[in-house]
């Protein structure tokens, strides 16, 4: 894997902000720190997980906190900024008054990350028995096909997004498409 | 269901305008009226159907007129504004000269809404026989998987969108993906 | 097919630039030439293939170079502009210093277009034997369902996109969804 430059990380974040009509944080020091955090995480895990949260290092447990995380869009809608304050709306960009944004990530997902992260540091099998510290099996994190009942947008995820990125419908407007699918990766 | 505030409705509409590079109408009174109409419809039906059109109250018949409606993107492309004039392009935003936009919704979809809406008001079964006023069965409104032949965007809808939200290809560039799917909701 | 006007072509390109936070080229003469090229290609092929590249006239071989082409997003991310310089980022829009952007289209796709384009001009079967100049069979250009492991975005394409249009994840984050699908068109 090639190491991303800070400029690449910044350019991607800016493009992403543009797509959704957001701005990058108006605080230049905070911005620099967050971009460096994203760069570090991308080098460490292979994906730019949130610089303000603990990643497990397992993609299937970290999907929801890869930047832009699943919680950004509802957070910007409700508070004007994401949890990290990397992405802000027009108003916060003007006032520069960064809000405190509470953690929206469900506690069970946080716990899963912590357990998995802790395991990695103590990964030595006890003699005479198989390790018992396995994290939840993949069957519990199985992705499904979902569609937005308003605009038809289709995603393949564990849960539907909080807000449809196409038409902005809320999560409740997503329903499952049942079909037999297999997937790799 | 929680009742949306006017600020939530405004914030969602603004985010949606940003995503597509549109503006909310430059007429402040019109804007206020439309946002209130969206709020009322969301409370009444559970989804923010177009404030300028009659909804049936049945999601499967109203999908195309939930704001942003299916007709917004072709209308903004052709006239600079949607039917309601809630969403306008750069030019209309500057000139503030709101155009009159003709109704693009197909007459059969309008009729379906009117019939269904009328039924609800007279929903009393005649004695001795089953009601005969049923609206068209769901088989006529069956969703399919469609893909954009240009960019590959996948949607699950009755008909393909007028304009691909990702690459802006026109409806004719969509084709069906045939697979056995079941769906809920 | 109705012939698109230059205004329709410009309006679509502008909407597309807005969606991704890009600008149309700041060089007015270049812009006019590119829009005319897009108009000509749309009239000739039925789709607006890139005005700076040779199209085969066969949709299955030209998908990747229909404007906005598959290469635009990585090119704007790396060079600030697409191959044609039709789409540019904020910085190039301000400095008006248009970069030279190398061709990112894989050589085998270019070759396929050239062969197919050349064939059309000499499409006369030699007597006594079947034509041997057939381009690669459709099985080699078979579309698949892909999903973005970060955000769940689903596409039906030959290869995944270079950059996820929703969350900006790179191509490596896409994996295949295996399901039995048939498709038309």
Q: With helices defined by DSSP (H or I, 4 residues minimum), what is the helix count of chain A? A: 6
Question: Can you write the helix and strand succession of chain A as a string?
Answer: HEHHHEHHEEEE
Unreliable spans of chain A are: 124-139
In round numbers, the mean pLDDT of chain A is 86
User: Percent of residues of chain A in helical segments?
Assistant: 25-40%
The largest sheet of chain A has its strands arranged as 4-3-5
The quaternary organization reads as homotrimer
Number of strands of chain A: 6
Straight-line distance between termini of chain A: 17 Å
Largest interface: A-B, 29 and 30 residues
Shape verdict of chain A: globular
Main β sheet profile of chain A: 3 strands, antiparallel
What attributes characterize this protein structure?
alpha+beta, globular, 185 residues, homotrimer
Structural summary, described in words:
The structure is a homotrimer of 185-residue chains. With 185 residues, chain A is of the alpha+beta class. Chain A has six helices and six strands. Chain A has helices at 6-20, 28-45, 59-62, 72-79, 90-95, 107-121; strands spanning 23-24, 87-88, 144-148, 154-157, 174-178, 182-183. In chain A, the strands form two sheets. In chain A, strands 4-3-5 form a three-stranded antiparallel sheet, with no helix packed on it. Chain A has a two-stranded antiparallel sheet with strand order 1-2. In chain A, a hairpin with a 5-residue loop joins strand 3 (144-148) and strand 4 (154-157). The first copy, chain A, is globular and about 50 Å long. Mean pLDDT of chain A is 86; it is low at 124-139. At the A-B interface, helix 4 and strand 5 of A face helix 1, strand 4 and strand 6 of B.
């Amino acid at each position: 894997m090639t190491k991303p430059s800070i400029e690449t990380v910044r350019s991607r974040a800016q493009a992403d902000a543009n797509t959704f009509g957001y701005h990058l944080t108006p605080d230049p020091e905070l911005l620099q720190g967050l971009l460096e955090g994203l760069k570090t995480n991308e080098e460490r895990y292979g994906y730019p997980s949130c610089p303000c949260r603990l990643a497990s290092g397992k993609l299937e447990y970290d999907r929801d906190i890869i930047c832009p995380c699943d919680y950004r869009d509802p957070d910007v809608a409700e508070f004007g900024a994401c949890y990290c304050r990397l992405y802000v709306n027009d108003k916060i960009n003007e006032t520069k008054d960064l809000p405190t944004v509470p953690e929206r990530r469900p506690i069970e997902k946080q716990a899963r990350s912590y357990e998995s992260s802790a395991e990695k540091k103590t990964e030595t099998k006890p003699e005479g028995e198989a390790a018992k510290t396995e994290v939840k099996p993949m069957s519990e994190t199985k992705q499904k096909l979902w569609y937005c009942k308003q605009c038809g947008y289709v995603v393949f995820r564990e849960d539907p997004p909080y807000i449809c990125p196409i038409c902005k419908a809320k999560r409740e407007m997503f329903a499952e498409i049942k079909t037999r699918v297999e997937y790799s990766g």
